[in-house]
Each structure stands twice: as C-alpha cells, then as structure tokens.
Specification:
The chain is mainly alpha-helical and 159 residues long. Helix content is 76%, strand content 0%.
Amino acid sequence: MMTRCITFSQAYRSVDMQVLLVIIAAFGIGKAMEKTGAAEFIATQMVGLGGGSPKMVLSMLYITTSILTEMVTNNAAALILWPISLAMANQMGVSWMPFAFAIMMGASASFATPIGYQCNMMVFGPGGYRFSDFLKIGVPMNLIAWVIMSFLIPIMWPF
C-alpha cells in the first residue's frame, strides 16, 4: 500500500475471514483447555500412553499435531496443542523446547489434504488435483517427516 502496488480495499478483500476466524477461535479453545484443566488431563493421558518416555510422548505430539493440521489450519493446530505440550513437559520434568519444535514442525507438515495449508488450497483447483491426490502423496510424506522429526528433534533440542 505504501508503494501503491495495491490499494487498501484490495488488501482488505484479500484477507480470508474464515481462516482468520479459525485462528481467533483456536486462541479461545487453547485458553479454555488451559483454564478448565482439559490440557492437563489430555497431557496426563498422552504421557501415560507414552509410558512416561519423553521421546515417545514427543513423537505422539508430533503425529497428533500433523493429523490435526490436516483438518484445521496449521496455526489453529499449534494454538490448540500448545497448552497440552507445556503440561506434558511439566509432568515429565523435561524442557518444553523440543515439544515446541514438534508442534512447529508437525503443524507445518500438512501434505495429506488441500485444506490444512493455504498453499495446498491454492494449487488444488488450478492444478486440477483431486482430494485423493493429496492423500496418495501426502500421507507417505507425513509418515516420513514424523519418523525423521521424532529422531532429530531430541538430538537438536535435548530434553
């Protein structure tokens, strides 16, 4: 707008209000999960499922984030799972840093559906893709990223 390449009304029209509303709602959901104790409860269940092993719990958090980001935006997935990840780290008495990176990477690994990430949606229609095309390529990519990140994150950001 400062360089007059775009007008204010063009910039305003380019904002996707649905995405913005999902992100705003995710802030509320994340805060509500924290206040009601739901984040603590879910964290306890996940730590139990992971046998209290930080590496296993981190891997579970990554895949949970990756699956959730396929259904909502990456920002919403991160906002919803953040309070849970903090509770998990606190329960196990480990650093929250690897869990933060698991959420960041998992939320960015939206390959299996066109709805999880804006770029997927931008190529979906014009590229003539079908939903199944994303599943065929995206699910294996998600699984590969899950294995690699589950191995690398604890090395790069120790517990």
